[in-house]
Design a protein that fits this description.
By secondary structure, the protein is an all-alpha fold. It is built from five helices and no strands. Helix 1 packs across helix 2. The two termini are 75 Å apart.
Length: 177
Amino acid sequence: MSDPGNNAGSTDRSLGQLVAAATAEMSALVHDEIALAKAEVRLDVKRGVTGSVVSIIAGVLLLFSIPVLSFAAAYGIHNLGLGLAWSFLIVGVAFIVLGALLGLFALAKFKKVKPPAKSIASAKQTASVLQGVKPHPRPAVAAGESHPAVTGGTRTGKALEQAPVKDKASAVARSSA
């Protein structure tokens, strides 16, 4: 028989033992949930890859069928009594017309593409708000303290404040620094 103090349903276990058991069970539960999620994702990825491969194969087969169907259409027209050259010419012109129609459709869709007006307006509004922002007051340097040196061609402190503003972006960056 086993020790009654080690049973999961025992009331004689200390608080530390109960916390340790709960922690171990929670850890096992989390590990099992992660394993289940991995298995589900693995199955979904496998299905996705299989579907993609089958779609690519179907696309290639459809692409290979175009010349065969073109020849069949040309010979079918030839069997109606037209010359073979005229039959192939009709099929070729039909492809050109179909391609031109699809090109016009694509051009119409491209003309409907507009710049992101809401994003541009939001960016302009943000820039205008930032231009009105005043910089936080900086502590004044007391007499006798040294000013930070200008190193590497960069300006600091008063040299930066006295430098001419070259563009609005510099002004915004300076005001927010």
